Batch of 2 targets.
Target 1
Amino acid sequence: MVGIAAAEPPNIPSESTARSELAALRVAPDGSSSGYSRDMFPHWSTVSGTCNTRETVLKRDGTGVVTDSACAAVSGRWFSPYDGATWSQASDVDIDHVVPLANAWRTGASSWTTARRQQFANDLSNPQLIAVTDNVNQSKGDQTPATWKPPRTTYWCTYAKMWTHTKYRYALTINSAEKSALTDMLNRC
């Protein structure tokens, strides 16, 4: 579709870097969800003025985004690389935590400080946040690539690179099924 850019979070590693990062990750069974709450990860922090993390990602990942005085997107277009859909209403778009908060909790974040969890939930410097179709994001929930992948198979390579880099950057563990799925997805690069 001409004129509609795909969402492109920063610092997506090369395939070779992602493979090295994947090899360096510690494989371990997921921990408990005990004590988990989204509230343990303060998210949509103020970035600048009245703009929070969600609004910042909507502007970064959209085309022709116009915001009101409260920084809410009132118009624009968003292409969701997960499913190939294009949206013109910000309400049809979710900001996906590539590595879901609940998964992070079970794989190491339960021991983090609140400040570290807030950094993870609002990370604009790494490929952890991306604007995607809301119901696709909701179908993902807190699943790993072992049980959920973007509907567009052409995006699997990029998704695996983003997931792996985020896990590596935050020293989170992966389980064996997740490692196998990520390896298969990187083989599509």
Note: Residues 51 and 66 are 13 Å apart (CA to CA).
Target 2
Amino acid sequence: MKIFFIFILLPIFCFSQKENFFILNDIKDLENTYYSKSILDNSSKSNDVNQAHLLRLFNIKEDVSEANQVKISFLTVDTLQLLYGNNQTKNFKYKRYKKYIEVSFENENINIPFIYQNTNIDKLRLGLNKDHNILVKKIVEKGGAIFILGDSYGFTSDYIFTEYNKYDDLKPFSKNEKWGIILKKDTIIKPQYDAATIFESKYILVKSNKKWGLLNQKGEAIIPINYDNILKIDNTSNKIFYVMNDGKVGLVNSEGKEIVSPIYDRISRFNDDYFELELNQKYGLATTEKIIYPALYTYLGGFSRGRIWERYLDNENKYITAKRDGKDVILDSLGFEYQPNIRIPTFDYGQKIFPIKETAKKVSNE
């Protein structure tokens, strides 16, 4: 009786690393208070450059908006502690290597021999770079196999954090339990807020009476302090901000005008021209200036090429297919709803579909 074993080598692909560790003579060299956001990579050609938050790299999911400083301490030969925010702490086990320490997060590890295997492991390597800043390498390794068929991949991302006192860009500072913003040694915003933090690398989030607002780097108001949270900026226009109140989402422009009140369950990009609004599993549309269609529709456009559902019916991107109250309708860019000349088919068989102009109905003011 002969037994054959099949070994399959599964390569792990990693992106090139831009930074290198230097020899770590003493792990105490890593003990320090760091600015919680990484140094921006000014060499990047992309305009969409975000700073990593040190606590997020450690898989801390809680609100870290007020954690502007993170202190790293070593409690034992295999345990480090993070101190941040309002005296909050988290402990992590680590392994010591010649040039770095390593913290592992086993997100998933399922292994049924010869049948199924799935792994999802994150690792953090912390060491010093040539400038004596702390270098953090985030390593993601994912792999899986069913019987003898398998696939694996991985990547590494580099982040550099500097000591809080040596960080020269915009950063929050506190005095008498109030927060402001300094640039090097110059005070940009006096400490007058309950919290202040840098947002999208070029704006300043400020908090007062449990509400958030947005300032520019001169301290001038962009968004009034009226919201539970300011989530992100729209990457397409870079002039629209997603805001939240009572768990609902809205849109505010860079002049502080509320384009869409925060009453929606979800808002996302429909395409370059529209935002899709969702409320109670119905959908509407808004532009960067106003709501065009309230959330009245159970269906808006579609996705698959080869079907009619490429969002639009014509080359000028003028009409959108939709469904309301169980009926097919066609929408234009001006807030009018039309009956289609035929029932809109599931697949595009070359039918000529167009709105019946006589059925135009204005719906944007309903």
Note: The first strand starts at residue 32 and ends at 35.
